[in-house]
Amino acid sequence: MTNSRVNFTERHEEGGWAKYLPAISGFYTTHLGKDLSDETFVPADRLPKKFEFGLQGLNFLDPEYSYFNYKYGLYSAGHAERKLDKCDDREPMIHKRDRKNTVLVGDSGGFQIATGVIKLDWATVKTPAGDKLREEILRYLEHTADWSMTLDVPAFAALPPLSEKTGLTKFEDCLDVSIYNLDYFMKNRVPGATKFLNVMSGSSNENSKQWYDAVKKYSIPAEVEKMGYTVDRTLEGWAFAGINMKNMKTVLERMLDLRRDNLLGGKDWIHFLGIGRLDWACYLSSIERLLKKYDNPNINISFDAASPFVAAGGYALSYNYNYFKPDQLTYAMGRGIDDKGLKGSNRAMPFQGPIMERLTAGDMCVMGPGDLNKHGKEGKTSWDTTTYALVMAHNVYNHIQAVQEINRLADIEYAVRKNVDYRDWYQMRDRKKQTNLSDFVPNSILFFNNFVEVLLDPSNKDPYNMLKENQAFLDYVSFGDKKATTTFSSLFGEEDNHSNDEHTPTGEELAGLDKEDLIDLDE
User: Using CA atoms, how far apart are residues 260 and 248, in angstroms rounded to an integer?
Assistant: First the structure.
């Protein structure tokens, strides 16, 4: 009997929400690639008995032979095999996907360049010597993705401690290199090979506007021709990075700028880089619906998070359940089932879903007492590398499920409350005890939906002033700060505490882990 399969793609299309893109790890794609190319890589007796599609059923991009299907994903050139004669076989999930039934957004790897994961001679970054890396990334994106980021240098590259490595000391330095990269892409791209998203970065509301004003011409056909490029090289979409993806006032200002400059029509994709928050999944859905209604019926908003892969591969954590309350939206994580005494166990796994319902404890815990790991010693975990892939797949399922569930709840709760008025937020904020409008959804989600309905209505005579007048509310729904470095907490969107979306691992959960027991995500 075939186990149940889940079609997240159909659910998403029916719901009409902003699209969460799993930021797929290099380990995951190469593990599935090795399994596909070498039938002995994962021995037959290691495969879970209920995996009717084998390990390849973990490829959620496959619409037919997967345990759950989701057509959307993001893959970064920052951790990929970028050699075009090797990448197809190494990462078939990415490169041999059915392009008619999948949408893949390609990240250019600017974050990895700024942080030193991709090595770059910063002394020659604006010379032909730096073109080798630019060319490699450009051709990889054209080979790989439907939509791709331009190659920006994030503003934090000019802040300590990274500035000591990059030699960039001010915001303008980052913008300057990013524009140099833009010109290279414009001059050398193959029109139609992939559609490019014009990346907007910045570390403050002011320099975000400065960045936008500097790069918008690359998205305007007439300006592109003035620069000496053919009109078919005009950039096709937008990407929001830096402060543009976490400060709501800045987000909405840039949206209004795009509308004012007639840069939403014909630009069918807007991506927000690195958002793992459930409240923002709803905020972005609200924005997308208004842009579809008034500006471009074909527009899509997407956002990505690597959390399902980082949690498993970096911290041996499994998503356990999702929790929806007005004061907390949570993907709860904890140490996965991991005990050497469970080797060979036929006990069914908890935390059900299309992956876990096919697994026994023995499928997860394969290393018993005395068994040696790849380093030739007995480790502290009962997991092998395939276990990590199984947990990653479960985590991806649970993350998508959470994003879709909170959007369903938000849609229903807003529909049944006919008189939601964002201005009531101020009165409720000043009360000693706040009244929850919903048993499941934070007030901010319902108020924000009403706020953007008013803001983005073309009849609004002064939307910019509306942003200024509602700075306090927009600050409340924003998150993050201007730190130059990324910690595990900031990756998971937990720099504030008014709406914790994901569970950051505690010391107790991480205690006792051997570094050798944890996989390398870039393996």
Answer: 18
Cβ count near 21 (within 10 Å) = 22
DSSP state of 519: P
Both tokens of 185, joined, read: 């892409």
Distance (Å, rounded) from C-alpha 138 to C-alpha 185?
7
The whole-angstrom separation of Cα 448 and Cα 286 is: 8
Contacts of 191 (CB under 8 A, 6+ apart): 230, 232, 233
Q: Which two tokens stand for residue 473?
A: 């509310």
Tokens, residue 9: 């793609």
Distance separating alpha carbons of residues 22 and 396, to the nearest angstrom: 7
pLDDT 10s digits, 280-312:
999 999 999 999 999 999 999 999 999 999 999
* Residue located via tokens 């300057």: 176
Beta bridge partners of 324: 329
Q: How far is CA 133 from CA 91, 112, 137, in A?
A: 20, 13, 6
**Whether 464 contacts 205, CB under 8 Å:** no
Collapsing DSSP to helix, strand or coil, 196 comes out as strand
Instruction: Give dist(CA 412, CA 409) in Å, integer.
Output: 5
Both tokens assigned to 143: 């080979």
pTM flag (> 0.70): yes
- Tokens representing residue 255 in the block: 């949206």
* Radius of gyration, alpha carbons of the chain: 23
What's the distance, CA 508 to chain centroid? 27
- Ranges of H-type helices in 298-384: 307-315, 361-364
Neighbour count for residue 45 (Cβ, 10 Å): 7
Q: How far apart are CA 351 and CA 253, in angstroms?
A: 41
DSSP state of 483: -
Q: Which helix (H) or strand (E) holds 167?
A: none
Rounded to 5 degrees, φ, ψ at 392 are: -60, -45
Judge whether 36 and 62 are in contact, CB under 8 Å.
no
Q: Of 75, 72, 48, nearest to 60 (Cα)?
A: 72
Cα dihedral 154, 110, 73, 354, rounded to 10, equals: -90
Query: At 166, which amino acid appears?
Result: T
Between 278-294 and 443-455, two packed helices, what is the crossing angle to 10 degrees?
20
Q: Residue 518: its pLDDT value, please? A: 55
Tokens 């993050």 -> residue:
480
Q: Identify the pLDDT of residue 418.
A: 83
Calculate the average pLDDT of the chain: 90
